[in-house]
Design goal:
Layout: H1 2-6, H2 13-24, H3 34-39, H4 44-53, E1 57-60, E2 63-66, H5 67-72, H6 75-92, E3 100-108, E4 116-119, E5 126-129, E6 136-144, E7 149-156
Parallel strand pairs: 2-5
Antiparallel strand pairs: 1-4, 3-6, 6-7
Length: 165
């Protein structure tokens, strides 16, 4: 389960219970409850007992991440970015007051994946989705190292404000 979560293909609690049922079936052990056979899955009580026995596991709500974004974020691309950034800063002699850090956040109507089982100490888990689609309203804020800021901006898809004269 830990490996699957690290590869962004974590199991939901229901899928973990189904896997437990399938793994126990070939051993011909007596199932813990008749509901296991009826539902073809381990019970919820078994699952929570399993989590108590394996303290390194917990249930998390993953962030949606497209496969293209997942494969593009790697050590080579990150190192290239910072090498280029250093080159630009040296070439144009930028100061702290010239460089703004912009952060954006948004709310989307895209699919939100179910919670998955992952490592207990993991702060952030992901789950691959088919694509990052949906309507998005974005808010951007910008601040530089000298303490200056730009007022927040909101961006709406397909909406243009026209100035009234």
């Amino acid at each position: 389960m830990l490996t699957a979560a690290k590869l962004h293909h974590g199991l939901s609690p229901k899928a973990a219970r189904q896997l437990a049922f399938q793994l126990q079936k070939p051993t011909k052990r007596k199932y813990q409850a008749a509901s296991w056979v009826l539902n073809q899955t381990a019970g919820e009580d078994w699952f929570y007992s399993f989590l108590k026995r394996h303290k390194e596991l917990s249930v998390h709500a993953p962030q949606s991440m497209s496969l293209s974004r997942l494969t593009a974020f790697n050590r080579v691309n990150v190192n290239n970015y910072f090498d280029n950034l250093e080159d630009v800063i040296k070439r144009f002699k930028f100061q702290a007051s010239d460089i703004y850090n912009i952060d954006e956040t948004g709310v989307t109507t895209a699919h939100t994946p179910n919670r998955i089982v992952a490592g207990h100490s993991i702060k952030q888990v992901g789950k691959v989705t088919s694509a990052e689609r949906g309507t998005l309203v974005t808010m951007c804020c910008a601040v530089n190292a000298s303490g200056n800021s730009i007022p927040p901006s909101l961006f709406f898809l397909g909406f243009t404000l026209k100035k009234q004269c």
